[in-house]
Amino acid sequence: LFVENLSLGLIVYNDITILLIEITVIGTLAILLFAVSTLTIYLRGSYLTRKAFGVLDELTEKANNISSQNLNLRLNVNDSTDELIEIALTFNRMMDRIEKAYEKQNQFVSDASHELRTPISVIQGYARMLDRWGKDDKDILQESIQAIKKESENMQDLVEKLLFIARNDKDTLVLVKGRFNMSELIGELIRETILLETNHNIESHVEPEIMLDGDRDRIKQALRIFVDNALKYTETGKIITIKLTIEDNYAVVTVRDNGIGIPEEQLPNIFDRFFRVDASRERDKGGHGLGLSIARIIVLRHGGRIKVASKPGEGTRFKIYFPIDLPPSTSHSE
Ligand code: ADP
Asked: What is the residue with the minimal CA distance to atom 14 of ligand 1?
């Protein structure tokens, strides 16, 4: 009995020891696992944090250093974590837009200065000629007066156009909108064209009583640009057609000529500022390449659109669409 008790005691003792050892091993393992996980999380966290701060530091530094001289600065996207890639990409896309807008503005200023140089040099040339010989020579006097008048008008026209575009860019272009009879406006435009222009045959078709909401004067200014171009780029004696019709919910003005036409590859550019298909030829015609960009601004500001079809040697057709059912008119104020 004693032996039995002893062996039972030993078995119980053994079991307790094994249990204690197991608990100790499992506990140690758990503590080890906890320590390793904590360390991993800490290291990974601090790596990510360091990476995040690295990108944010770079962003701060680059944002602080941006000036007109280094608009090509971009963040290094490869160094970013997934979470920060979006910030870096957004920053880079913003810089792309700013750089593009800045380049466009620079180009505009340089083109405008270039355009102004020609009339200024012509005026200076005539002033010098007047100074030398004009005082005694009536012919030179007359020629110079005519040329100076023409060039200063040309300059005034250019400056007005530049101001119009600048106002639009600054969003201070005032549109005085109201309801008016578009059929009457087109009638007026046709009569004025026939009165001033005797070298082309003007054909027309105007559907009556088409009413529109918009700035009547600005719309007339835009349409005049299309008509003037049709006259400018069409040989004398040929036909210019001006039409007003309704298509779906649009009042559609069609200006068609059978003039020189525009090469297909140039069509996407004709609404760009200062664009001319043939700069040397078109300067003689008094164009600055700004007419269509102004017309486009006016049409877009009325919720309209422009379609153009053209073939060199056959002619050009512009269709200008103005929506008839406009929401209550809104006008920008200065
Ligand atoms: P511009 O004042 O020089 O006429 P626009 O902006 O009005 O400038 O037109 C841009 C260019 O598009 C013109 O220089 C001309 O080359 C071309 N263009 C515009 N309208 C016509 C047309 N009806 N026929 C042929 N070419 C045209």
From this structure: 276
State which amino acid sits at residue 123: I
CA-based nearest residue to 238, from 313, 307, 187:
313
> Separation of 289 CA from ligand 1 center, angstroms?
7
Residue corresponding to tokens 């870096």:
88
Interval between CA 174 and ligand 1 midpoint (Å): 26
259 lines ligand 1 (CB under 6 A): yes
Structure confidence by residue, pLDDT tens digits, 295-331: 999 999 999 999 999 999 999 999 999 999 755 544 4
Q: Is the CB of 316 under 6 A from ligand 1?
A: yes
Ligand 1 center to 48 CA (angstroms): 58
Size of the chain, expressed as the number of residues it contains: 334
- Rounded to the nearest angstrom, the distance between the alpha carbon of 226 and the centre of ligand 1 is 9
Which residues on neighbouring strands pair with residue 316, listed in sequence order? 257, 310
CB 159: neighbour CB atoms within 10 A?
13
What are the pLDDT digits (tens) for 127-183?
Answer: 999 888 878 888 888 999 999 999 999 999 999 999 999 999 888 999 999 999 999
